[in-house]
């Protein structure tokens, strides 16, 4: 089986594990930082400010750091950013009542988040054969799903056994350990930036097809951000075992199953066609949320909306690698992370006022708008998303 074969590839598990551990702090941040600050007596206004500073600084700095990696290599960027990001978490943990220190720590931890996610995807072509790339991206996408399941669980464990503030120390430790494992692996040490001529100031965004491909998943991020808040309100109105967390777990489980099936298939369709197919599936799933059905049917919709998500992202990963101009691949993957996260944040922010006014059906429709936007962008850019020969990719 292909999954077993690539898992046995030299360095495959090490870089995957290092990246996974190093990404846990980002998945923990949305829960760990508010809990630690609240436990220290902070009000919700300040907590919201800090959470916003972390998210915005991370989104803005991600592509910039990715561009630096494309210039100087991976370890020279990963190690300093890990040290500074860990210092940010430590600053918050050491002085949770000092507002200025907390804001500085949040900006430092967010802006200097080690770019493990884009760095990992740049390495896959050097670790697996070309015909195994779909499998590698599928495992990568599945691991990403598990990051956002495991992150909150680590915070829960820290709170249950110790205190909320220990989650911040755990974030600092996991950041350093993950980067140490990843950046000392041979594929990361051997990877060299591509030497190109004059670089365009827009980097990978100068290619319209790639820009549309990077922007399309932001629509799905918007839908997911809406869903994350929507299910909390839904569970309050429709009591069900386990409440909102169970619905989100079903969504993540279906996504995991979907991407494992995706990676096991030998595809004859082009990546852009697969992305179009999965985008259509997401429109159907999120569109049906407008019905706001009973708990059993809602559980089915969680499975449907999740099933197409990770496969679409896996196909997007592969196509980004094919479309990105030489010397911009890391930055291109960093833009994907930033735009997806931005869409997620906007979706969560947009749905809140609707739920406050008890407009549940309108709030559910919000998610469908994001999925439709994704599909429209894929359709608009379909012809431009066909990879060109390497010679044409020169910067």
UniProtKB/TrEMBL annotation:
Per the record's keyword annotation, is DNA-binding included, yes or no? no
**Which PROSITE patterns would you find in this protein's record?**
MFS
Matches recorded under Gene3D superfamilies = MFS general substrate transporter like domains (1.20.1250.20)
What cellular component terms from Gene Ontology apply here? Answer: plasma membrane
Which InterPro entries does the entry link to?
A: MFS, MFS_dom, MFS_trans_sf
Q: Where found in the cell?
A: Cell membrane
Keyword Acetylation carried by entry: no
Which SUPFAM superfamilies does this entry report, sorted A to Z?
Answer: MFS general substrate transporter
Bilayer disposition of the protein: Multi-pass membrane protein
A GO molecular function term, named singly, is: transmembrane transporter activity
What Pfam families does this protein map onto? MFS_1
Swiss-Prot/TrEMBL keywords: Membrane, Transmembrane, Transmembrane helix
Cite the Major facilitator superfamily (MFS) profile domain residue spans from the record.
11-389
TM segment ranges: 12-33, 45-65, 145-163, 210-234, 246-268, 275-292, 298-320, 332-355, 367-385
State the name under which the record lists this protein: Major facilitator superfamily (MFS) profile domain-containing protein
Q: What is the native source organism of this protein?
A: Actinokineospora bangkokensis
């Amino acid at each position: 089986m292909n999954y077993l074969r690539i898992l046995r590839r030299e360095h495959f598990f090490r870089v995957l594990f290092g990246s996974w551990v190093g990404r846990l702090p980002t998945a923990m941040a949305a829960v760990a930082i508010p809990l630690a600050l609240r436990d220290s007596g902070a009000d919700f206004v300040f907590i919201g400010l800090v959470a916003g500073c972390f998210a915005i600084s991370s989104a803005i700095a991600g592509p910039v750091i990715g561009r630096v990696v494309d210039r100087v290599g991976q370890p020279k960027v990963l190690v300093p950013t890990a040290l500074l990001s860990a210092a940010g978490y430590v600053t918050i943990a050491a002085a949770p009542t000092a507002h200025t220190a907390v804001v500085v720590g949040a900006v430092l931890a967010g802006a200097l988040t080690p770019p493990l996610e884009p760095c990992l995807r740049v390495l896959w072509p050097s670790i697996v054969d070309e015909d195994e790339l779909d499998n590698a991206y599928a495992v990568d996408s599945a691991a990403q799903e598990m990051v956002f399941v495991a992150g909150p669980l680590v915070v829960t464990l820290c709170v249950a056994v110790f205190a909320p503030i220990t989650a911040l120390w755990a974030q600092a430790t996991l950041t350093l350990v993950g980067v140490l494992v990843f950046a000392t692996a041979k594929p990361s040490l051997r990877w060299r930036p591509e030497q190109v001529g004059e670089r365009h100031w827009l980097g990978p965004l100068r290619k319209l097809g790639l820009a549309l491909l990077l922007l399309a998943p932001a629509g799905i991020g918007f839908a997911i951000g809406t869903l994350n808040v929507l299910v909390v309100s839904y569970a309050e109105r429709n009591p069900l075992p386990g409440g909102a967390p169970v619905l989100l777990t079903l969504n993540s489980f279906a996504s995991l199953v979907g991407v494992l099936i995706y990676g096991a298939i030998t595809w004859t369709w082009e990546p852009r066609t697969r992305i179009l197919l999965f985008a259509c599936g997401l429109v159907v799933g999120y569109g049906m949320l407008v019905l706001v059905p009973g708990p059993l049917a809602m559980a089915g919709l969680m499975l449907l909306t999740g099933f197409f998500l990770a496969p679409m992202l896996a196909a997007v990963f592969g196509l980004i690698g094919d479309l990105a101009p030489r010397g911009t691949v890391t930055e291109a993957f960093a833009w994907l992370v930033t735009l997806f996260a931005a869409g997620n944040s906007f979706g969560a922010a947009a749905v809140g006022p609707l739920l406050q006014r008890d407009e549940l059906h309108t709030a559910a429709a919000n998610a469908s708008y994001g999925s439709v936007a994704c599909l429209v962008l894929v359709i608009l850019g379909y012809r431009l998303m066909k990879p060109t020969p390497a010679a044409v990719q020169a910067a």
